[in-house]
UniProtKB/TrEMBL annotation:
SUPFAM superfamilies per UniProt: FAD-linked reductases, C-terminal domain, FAD/NAD(P)-binding domain
Top-level lineage group: Bacteria
Cited Pfam families: FAD_binding_3 (PF01494)
Record has Signal as a keyword: yes
Domain FAD-binding: 4-345
Co-factor requirement: FAD
Protein name: Salicylate 1-monooxygenase
Alphabetical UniProt keywords: FAD, Flavoprotein, Monooxygenase, Oxidoreductase, Signal
Matching PANTHER family: GERANYLGERANYL DIPHOSPHATE REDUCTASE, MONOOXYGENASE
Signal sequence segment: 1-19
Transmembrane keyword on record: no
InterPro entries: FAD-bd, FAD-dep_Monooxygenase_BioMet, FAD/NAD-bd_sf
MF terms in GO: FAD binding; monooxygenase activity
Length: 381
């Protein structure tokens, strides 16, 4: 059987994880990314035990342990008194319970690790997708701005919330602006002048919260992300800058630890928090969506990237041993396997109640994308 050739659109977390998983299974996968180069964007990321299990198969666990912070817990506290609402312990307890560590890192470091698991010759930067066409023989022709068309047996669109592929296949959908905004930044811990913060804490206020944690094993970098009302702001961009003074004013009255962190931070980014409903369909023929392109979610469970990374492992299993004629059914099987879980996480995250009070998170962290049962052929429609 001729080796399957797959084009992956987008070199974010989901796209790189998909390429790594497909290449690991012997499939020829090529990544196309519109950016001209990779940059270390200033944001933290929580890497759940469920995501680590996927990346362990790429040989990345030692790298991530070396680059990331290993927290004792995810502690949920009252915004002003610091009273503990729920202390979700991680560390060695999580490793024993879920079979993998829970790590806190910098998005740039996680991205670099995933990129290292992909054959560099197969990563094509500076390629902006402008259109595609499914041919009568099942092949898919891709057109990139200023480039000659290329043809593949299958296409995986990991091109994010503004996915051109999603818009082309299923039409444009307006995001549901939540009326809330988030500020975020990473800055050197040295700016705290020796002041120690908790490993990872979410400070719960009446109508707003802030999550603060270290992102390096030596505690040299601090990250925070907020959520608060701001109905008039509708910029859905991770690069828009915010006003530090406005941010500090928005969290007056919070615990002194929060005040010290906000006083030390030199600059922040600001973006509107949006929500989208689960899509009715993810694929059409030999083209499928993956990650944020088909199940974007609010950040309140810290599982957006993890869901895309899980997608990658399950998709590679569905495509294993498949030829071009079997791709469409493999994509349907992928959707049937993944949609119940991603929809549950998507809708659970929407409520912003995750770990606010004592709860059992096993259903999130014990998931193993390499071994979860795939949907039976009879479940594929």
């Amino acid at each position: 059987m001729k080796k399957l050739r797959v084009a992956v659109i987008g070199a974010g977390m989901g796209g790189l994880a998909t390429a790594a998983a497909l290449q690991r299974s012997g499939i020829e996968a090529h990544v196309y990314e519109q950016a001209a180069k990779f940059t270390r964007l200033g944001a933290g990321i929580q890497i759940g035990c469920n995501a680590i299990k996927v990346m362990r198969e790429f040989g990345l666990e030692p790298v991530l342990r070396n680059e990331c912070f290993y927290p004792r817990s995810w502690n949920n506290k009252e915004f002003d008194t610091g009273e503990v609402r729920f202390d979700m312990e991680f560390g060695a307890l999580a490793e024993e319970r879920y079979g993998a560590p829970y790590l806190l890192g910098h998005r740039g470091d996680l991205h670099a690790a995933l990129a290292s698991a992909v054959n560099p010759a197969t990563i094509n930067l500076g390629h902006k997708l402008v259109g595609f066409e499914q041919m009568t023989d099942g092949a898919v022709q891709l057109t990139f701005d200023g480039q000659s068309p290329v043809t593949y047996d299958a296409v995986v669109a990991a091109d994010g919330v503004h996915s051109l592929v999603k818009k082309t296949l299923f039409g444009h959908d307006e995001p549901n602006f939540t009326g809330r905004i988030a500020y975020r930044t990473v800055f050197p811990a040295s700016l705290l002048n020796g002041y120690e913060i908790d490993d990872c804490t979410k400070w719960w206020g009446p109508d707003r919260h802030i999550v603060i944690y270290y992102v390096k094993p030596d505690r040299s970098e601090v990250y925070f992300v907020t959520s608060q009302p701001d109905p008039g702001f509708t910029v859905e961009s991770w690069s828009a800058m915010g006003d530090v003074k406005e941010l500090r004013a928005a969290f007056e009255g919070f615990h002194p630890q929060v005040g010290r962190v906000l006083e030390a931070c030199p600059s922040v980014h600001k973006w509107a928090l949006v929500d989208r409903d689960p899509l009715p369909r993810w694929s059409d023929g030999n083209v499928t969506l993956l990650g944020d392109a088909c199940h974007p979610m609010t950040p309140y469970m810290a599982q957006g990237a993890a869901m895309a990374i899980e997608d990658a492992a399950v998709l590679s299993r569905c495509l294993d041993g498949v030829d071009r004629d079997g791709v469409a059914q493999a994509f349907q099987r992928f959707e049937a396997t993944r949609k119940p879980r991603t929809s549950r996480v998507q809708l659970s995250s929407r409520t912003n109640t995750w770990l606010k009070d004592p709860s059992n998170p096993d259903w999130v962290y014990e998931y193993d994308a390499w071994n979860v049962p795939l949907a039976a052929a009879t479940e594929v429609v």
